[in-house]
Amino acid sequence: MSTPSTDATAPTPAFGKFALLFGIAFVICYWVCAFMSWPLFTYYPATSAIGWGREAASPTTGPAMYWYGWTAVCLMVSTVAGFLGTLLPDSVVKRIPLVLIWLLPLAAFPLMFYAVIPLLTHR
């Protein structure tokens, strides 16, 4: 029975590469989709209706929710980025700083808060 290697030069498992690239790509993609307003679809919770792309709210459909559409786009883009990341050589993956996994979401919070300030101050 073999034991896992603790050597710093041990190969990175495919799932480790996938998770690293998926996590980084998801945060970047979400931020871009939110600020560029690129949802895959728009959901109207009042009527349970769905429209493709970005659609504005109307008196008949009620308020529009874009979050689900942004999340769907990010899941697709991040999954592709993660699978492509499994093809990268270990030497390239080891150069990606792991700190990005927690630093990017922390950096995105102030930007996302800034984006919702008009909603919080609207009277």
- Largest β-sheet summary: 2 strands, antiparallel
Number of domains: 1
Low-confidence parts: none
Question: How much of the sequence is in beta strands?
Answer: 5-15%
Count of separate DSSP helical elements: 4
Estimated radius of gyration? 19 Å
- The strand line-up of the biggest sheet is 1-2
Distance between the termini: 67 Å
Number of strands: 2
Order of helical and strand elements? HEEHHH
**Secondary structure: helix percent:** 55-70%
Dominant shape:
elongated
Average pLDDT, to the nearest integer?
86
Structural class: mainly alpha
Account of the protein in words:
The chain is mainly α. The protein has one domain (14-121). It has helices at 14-36, 67-86, 90-93, 100-121, and strands at 41-44, 49-52. It has a two-stranded antiparallel ribbon with strand order 1-2. It is elongated and about 65 Å long.
Topology:
Blueprint: H1 14-36, E1 41-44, E2 49-52, H2 67-86, H3 90-93, H4 100-121
Antiparallel strand pairs: 1-2
